[in-house]
Amino acid sequence: MGNRLHGMMRRALALVLPMLVVAAWAAGNQLHLTGTGSDSRGRVDLQIALAEKGRCTKFVDAATGIVAVADAVPGDQSTSTRVCLKASGRVGLHLGVGGLSDVERGCTGQEPAVDPTCVPGGQGELSSSLVQLVSVEQRCFKDAPPSRVPFVSLVDAPLDLGTLDEQRVVCAVLAVRYEPATADDAQAGQTDRAQWRYVFSVSN
Questions:
Q1: Is residue 109 helix, strand or coil?
Q2: CB 51 within 8 A of CB 70
Q3: Are 151 and 97 in contact (CB under 8 A)?
Q4: Distances (CA, A) of 17 to 21, 33, 123, 174, 182
Q5: Model confidence over 116-162: pLDDT tens digits?
Q6: Using an 8 Å Cβ cutoff, are 84 and 38 in contact?
Q7: pLDDT for the residue numbered 135
């Protein structure tokens, strides 16, 4: 795992992970990932389910949801969310990000000095400071050291998660961490909100 898929035809199945991410300013609060509803989209090669207490919930052909990050402070990290995946045949499995929107919601403090787009509705900078943490486990109650991937890289280059054997269930463990590289980056993103979908896709 960890190599990105380049130059290969892939069949995107519009399988999107339903999660809501919320961060608070209060000291000690972290980002949290929680499941939302799902929606069947017909027969496909890949199925997903949220894992709860080490067990997979009901598998569905597709699921829709929006992820939002707001008011994150440097060092905030989400709790891990586990997603069960299984396929009807042997396929390559990939994780990407779709529908990314990063928008300014306001302009406070010293933000105008470091952020030229600091106007409500302008381009935000929050997503560029997010780090995606991901691992693939054979069992959903175990934790392995995650791979760290720049979040925005998943928009154009889905991450290769390895091969998924027919009807074999694996668990993708996902979390995000807010790591602005500089104090200016943190200042520029302090009023921003990012929204996106996690998209799992397969290749033959």
A1: coil
A2: no
A3: yes
A4: 12, 11, 25, 10, 30
A5: 878 888 898 999 999 999 999 887 777 778 999 999 999 999 999 99
A6: no
A7: 93
**Cα separation of 57 and 38, whole Å?**
11
Distance (Å, whole) CA 12 – CA 7: 14
Tokens representing 131 are 């780090």
Checking phi first, is residue 128 left (phi over 0); if not, alpha (psi -120 to 50) or beta?
alpha
Classify residue 163 as left (phi > 0), alpha (psi -120 to 50) or beta: beta
Taking the C-alpha atoms of residue 163 and residue 168, their distance in angstroms, rounded to an integer, is 10
Q: Which of the two residues, 69 and 12, has the higher pLDDT score?
A: 69
Contact 202, 46 (CB under 8 A): yes
In this structure, what token pair is assigned to residue 28? 């000690």
- DSSP string covering 70-108, please? ES--TT-BPPPEEEEEEESS-EEEEEEEEEEEEEE----
- List pLDDT tens digits, range 25-62: 222 333 333 333 333 333 347 888 888 888 888 888 75
Q: Which helix (H) or strand (E) holds 155?
A: helix 153-156
What is the greatest pairwise CA distance in the chain?
54
- What's the CA gap between 155 and 132, in Å, rounded? 12
Closest residue by Cα to residue 62 from 31, 92, 98, 102: 98
Tracing tokens 């009023």 back to the chain, one arrives at 191
Closest CA to 32 of 23, 42, 41: 23
- pLDDT at residue number 66: 65
